[in-house]
Write a structure and sequence with these properties.
CATH class: Alpha Beta
Distance between the termini: 68 Å
Radius of gyration: 20 Å
Oligomer: single chain
CATH architecture: 3-Layer(aba) Sandwich
Length: 190
Amino acid sequence: MFRITALRLLCFALSLVYAPGFLNAAEPSSGLDWRARVESSLPLFGHRNWILIVDSAYPLQVAPGIETIDTGASQTEVLHFVLSAVNRAPHVRPDVFLDAELPYISDQDAPGVSAYRDDLAAILREFPTHSLAHDKLIANVNEAGQAFHVLVLKTTMTIPYSSVFVRLNCRYWSDDAETRLRQKMAGPKH
């Protein structure tokens, strides 16, 4: 009898210790301060952190590092704000990823998608973009959320596969410099 009671007590105590972390990972925040949250997060963020600007049906992920905020704002408004904030940051630059499915969606199936693609192209004209399948992007974000902070900004968008995934990279260290460094490190030792 004592063993069962002690085991139950131990399980209960452990649930009190670990439950708040799990609950915070999945609990969405109010949209009232989403701009302030972006601004306060950027100085802390670095390469490998993500900021997602997602449609209203994007799933609530529960990896420990993923924070979701319901902005109550339009997709283009949130995207403009995020890219402008990242551009002002001296230490990070955006690597932009789009759902590979987006170019194949028709206005017949998702009214307004052509206009959205045009708006998106204009907003992203100065940024190199990459396309990956939606499931692959979600998997990448989930994996990143195991070790790094991911900020998910839910918008009022109701067009499927319209999410924009911004992986932050180091502004003062280029991909070419990283490649050269790795090649030197792999070369013969002196």
